[in-house]
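Practice problem: predict the structure.
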Amino acid sequence: MVYDLAILDTERDIDDEAAWGIISDRRAAKQSAEVRRLGLLQLLRWQEQVKMQHAVTESEAKRSRTTDHAGTASPPGGLRRPEQALGERQPRRRPCCRA
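Answer:
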């Protein structure tokens, strides 16, 4: 019996990535998904900021509606402070020195 030595050449002449482009397609899909996710995150943050600003503006408007002309907030239920119940008149003060 005679044995022949077989030499296997493991180098391939075919460039699989160039032929099918599987890796580049996967990389492009991951990149587009990441861009979409970041865009959605930015949109959600912007919407939240707009809602927060709207709530602040709304509360300021409500506060200005409940503020009387003197610039102080009126108590709940429309009750007035004692000095306001008197017609907001302050007693006249006499001069301390007589001329």
